[in-house]
Amino acid sequence: MAEAIIAGGCFWCTEAVFRDVIGVSDVQSGYIGGSVPHPTYKAVCAGTTGHAEAIRVGFDPARLAYGDLLDIFMATHDPTQLNRQGNDIGTQYRSAIFPLDDAQRAEAHAAIARAQAERAQPVVTTIEGPAEWYPAEDYHQEYWEGEGQRNPYCLAVIPPKLQKLRKSFAARAKP
């Protein structure tokens, strides 16, 4: 098993996408890239800790290459929006990749270059770290499968991301 840490706005939304990717065994929502130890959701949302809402993805590299995971990430959020995704505004919603080793760092640079080649606007996704990972509170985990199905924000944002996954990466999406 391998791990990847990515931040693409609301972690509920990013988590929902990657739970539907073949080769992914686990997705955990959390916080990374800030200066406050053991941040809370309230503090991160206030933008006072420097952390990004992020996900830690456990995946089988024999079934899903890290580069392919990053291509899905780049396609299912807007990597050209600086410190925001849609109506979520602040550095806590930044687009960032947190490589766990030099090979992942090289793949992150390559993924950003591929994403830039497909867009006229500049890709602002950052490559950060190393940084400490903090799991989000329990009620954030698997949010889409539970509370998210009744949350108007999630209902507006997540289904289009899942449709994009199924359309652009059909062979990678779970049935």
Give an account of the 3D structure.
With 175 residues, this protein is an alpha+beta fold. The protein has one domain: Peptide methionine sulphoxide reductase MsrA (Peptide Methionine Sulfoxide Reductase, Chain A).
Radius of gyration, Cα only, in angstroms?
Answer: 15 Å
User: How many DSSP E strands?
Assistant: 8
Annotated CATH topology: Peptide Methionine Sulfoxide Reductase, Chain A
Q: How widely separated are the two ends?
A: 22 Å
Label the CATH architecture. 2-Layer Sandwich
Overall structural domain count: 1
**Helix tally?**
5
Q: What is the assigned CATH homologous superfamily? A: Peptide methionine sulphoxide reductase MsrA
Largest sheet: 6 strands, mixed
* Amount of helix: 25-40%
Structural class comes to alpha+beta
Short description:
With 175 residues, the chain is of the alpha+beta class. The protein has helices at 11-18, 41-45, 66-75, 102-117, 152-168; strands at residues 2-8, 24-32, 52-59, 84-85, 88-89, 95-97, 126-127, 133-135. It has a six-stranded mixed β-sheet, covered by helices on one side. A two-stranded antiparallel ribbon has the order 4-5.
Task: Give the topology.
Layout lengths: L1 E7 L2 H8 L5 E9 L8 H5 L6 E8 L6 H10 L8 E2 L2 E2 L5 E3 L4 H16 L8 E2 L5 E3 L16 H17 L7
Helix pairs in contact: 1-5, 3-4
List keywords for this structure.
alpha+beta; two-stranded antiparallel sheet; 175 residues; 5 helices; 8 strands; 21% strand
